[in-house]
């Protein structure tokens, strides 16, 4: 599950966070309709509150309005992916290269997510493998000690999950080597070898971006036919 949040938030923010979590867990793939009246009933909230939530999701790049269809979960494009990875590099590498001491509790959470991803992989639960991988990187960013950056990165992770969902067969992108590389990064951080960890993470992010760009390119070519 995502990091604990401040309980003193508004109803609209709580619903927005829940929908974002649902996207991150693969429960709301691209193109899913977000029907105002249904969401109001599901969450026991007013239509005005749900309207505020949908506007917020639009601002976060998680939803969009389509004529004759209403508000839907957004489909990501190549330019979106490039922006996501630019932000990932800035945040994750700063967390590793920064001057703040690494928090052992977060490294433990990182390891727990890696181990859980391996169990999900063994069960061929590809959606969970992707979700747990995102959690690994959330724990890296949490080393920065900023609640604001944590929230921003959660939104990036939700956007990234929408890219994962663009691949009909997620087993093609949620392969064992990613988990092995995350375990290596964790091992280097535990040993205090931050520079090699940053090098390994840079290579990981470069390869991950290339893999997902290929997915979006293939999807775009299929739609153009």
From TrEMBL:
Record Pfam families: FCD, GntR
GO MF term list: DNA binding; DNA-binding transcription factor activity
Keyword presence, GTP-binding: no
Keyword set, alphabetical order: DNA-binding, Transcription, Transcription regulation
HTH gntR-type domain sequence ranges: 9-76
Domain of life: Bacteria
CDD domains the UniProt entry points to: WHTH_GntR
Presence of the UniProt keyword Nucleus in the record: no
PANTHER family linked to this entry: GNTR FAMILY REGULATORY PROTEIN, TRANSCRIPTIONAL REGULATOR, GNTR FAMILY
Record-given protein name: HTH gntR-type domain-containing protein
Organism: Achromobacter pestifer
Lineage of the organism: Bacteria, Pseudomonadati, Pseudomonadota, Betaproteobacteria, Burkholderiales
């Amino acid at each position: 599950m995502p990091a604990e949040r401040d309980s003193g938030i508004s109803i609209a923010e709580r619903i927005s966070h829940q929908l974002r979590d649902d996207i991150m867990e693969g429960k709301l793939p691209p193109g899913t309709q977000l029907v105002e009246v249904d969401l109001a009933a599901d969450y026991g909230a007013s239509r005005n509150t749900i309207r505020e939530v949908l506007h917020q999701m639009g601002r976060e790049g998680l939803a969009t309005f389509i004529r004759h269809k209403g508000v839907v979960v957004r489909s990501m494009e190549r330019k979106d992916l490039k922006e996501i990875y630019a932000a990932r590099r800035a945040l994750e590498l700063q967390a590793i290269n920064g001057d703040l001491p690494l928090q052992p509790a977060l490294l433990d959470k990182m390891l727990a997510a890696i181990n859980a991803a391996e169990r999900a992989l063994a069960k061929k639960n590809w959606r969970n493998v992707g979700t747990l991988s995102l959690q690994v990187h959330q724990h890296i960013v949490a080393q920065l000690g900023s609640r604001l950056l944590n929230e921003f990165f959660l939104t990036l992770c939700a956007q990234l999950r929408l890219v994962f969902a663009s691949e009909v067969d997620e087993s093609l992108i949620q392969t064992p080597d990613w988990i092995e590389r995350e375990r290596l990064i964790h091992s280097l951080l535990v040993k205090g070898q931050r520079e090699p960890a940053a090098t390994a993470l840079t290579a990981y992010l470069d390869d991950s971006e290339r893999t997902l760009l290929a997915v979006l390119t293939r999807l775009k070519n299929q739609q153009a036919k």
